[in-house]
Amino acid sequence: MQRICTTLANANYDIELVGRKKKTSIPLENKIYVQKRLNCFFQKGKFFYIEHNIRLFFYLIFKNIDVISSVDLDTIFACTIVSKIRSKKLVFDAHEYFTEVPEVTNRKSIKKIWEIVAKLCIPKTDAAYTVGESLAEIFAEKYHKKFEVIRNVPPLSNLQIIKSSNEKFILYQGDLNEGRGLEQMIEAMQQIDAEFCIAGNGLQLEKFKHLAIKFHVTEKVKFLGYINPDELKKLTVKATIGINILENKGLSYYYSLANKFFDYMHAEVPQICAPFPEYEKINKQFQIALPCECIVSKIADTINALLNDSIIYKKLQSQCLKAKETFNWEIEEKILLKIYADVCK
Q1: What is the DSSP string of 307-333?
Q2: How far, in Å, are 29, 95, 129, 221 from residue 70 at the CA level?
Q3: Of these four, 168, 191, 258, 309, which has the most CB atoms within 10 Å of its CB?
Q4: What are the strands, taking DSSP E only, across the chain?
Q5: Are residues 186 and 277 in the same domain?
Q6: Sequence-distant (≥ 6) Cβ neighbours of residue 330 within 8 angstroms
Q7: pLDDT beyond 90 at 161
């Protein structure tokens, strides 16, 4: 969202990014756009989503706005109602296949509610985009709405990349949620001679800490907590291997194209990656990753192969250098700007 808002603000749009305040939220940093956090009494579950949409509705109904951009299904209901009442343009930004995330797809009644919300609201949008070609095709067929593709890729950076041959560590960055391969990765660390750094927070944090104790790898597994984007970028370029493995727990994961995939690419960090369609498509074009199923033995074998084979490692690293010239924000932002130029005509 920071990349999107910064691009639009630099193009002379007046931008306000509205989120919600958590108990664990860190202070907001100064940006060239306005930022607002809504306070919610409920922090999770159905009452949170109801409260959040009510608060969002009353916040937006009185705002001086021309276009509302809804990010994922959990904000689209309030945004749709406001856009219709006030005759404002509505853009939908689908970061994931919301009804197919593990927390939703296994709960039939909850999934049904979100599917109804999607079918009611998405066709009413004035423009829509998502993170990958597979999801764009699925959404277009399902909701009879054209979806553009804007990948969550970093901008080309002038940050000097210096790799240390002495400092070897494996990095995972992102939310600590179900299905991200972290259980299997922590167990696999019994067979891997390197440190594993986990940068992020999430619902499963305490569970993963207990697993590190259970498998006697607490000296190898480091929980770094939340790291701000600028510091995370500096950490990522120092990593030896990036982790982007997923369990096949729903179509959202299967058709995902995670930010970390591109973050490792731009940091010229070879990665082990889920053998899912969007990753395989890019990996056929530029071999920047070794595909790996979310199985403990295969994770250990793949990482050890990458740690010990300098020829394969250097090949993946050199492909990262080429790949980021094709997959970068300077290219993707042109699509974003065209979408908003068309909506604002």
Answers
A1: HH-HHHHHHHHHHHHHHTTTSSHHHHH
A2: 22, 10, 11, 37
A3: 258
A4: 16-21, 34-39, 67-71, 89-94, 127-130, 148-149, 169-173, 195-199, 221-225, 241-244, 271-273, 289-291
A5: yes
A6: 155, 156
A7: no
Residues composing the chain: 345
pLDDT (tens digit per residue) in 268-299: 999 999 999 999 999 999 999 999 999 999 99
Distances (CA, A) of 278 to 11, 12, 152, 251: 30, 33, 13, 12
Q: Are residues 94 and 185 in the same domain?
A: no
Say if residue 26's pLDDT is above 90.
no
User: Using CA atoms, how far apart are residues 107 and 53, in angstroms rounded to an integer?
Assistant: 21
* Angle, helices 133-143/277-285, rounded to nearest 10 degrees: 140
Give the model's pLDDT for residue 107.
Answer: 87
* Cα 76 from chain centre: 19
Residue 159 has pLDDT above 70, yes or no: no
Classified as helix, coil or strand, 125 is coil
H or E stretch covering 233: helix 229-236
Does any domain span residue 8?
A: yes
Same domain, 52 and 117: yes
**Is residue 337 in some structural domain?**
yes
In a domain, 102, yes or no: yes
Q: Are 174 and 121 found together in one domain?
A: no
* C-alpha 196 chain-centroid distance: 20
Question: Is 90 exceeded by the pLDDT of residue 210?
Answer: yes
Q: How far is CA 170 from CA 162, 183, 276, in A?
A: 16, 15, 21
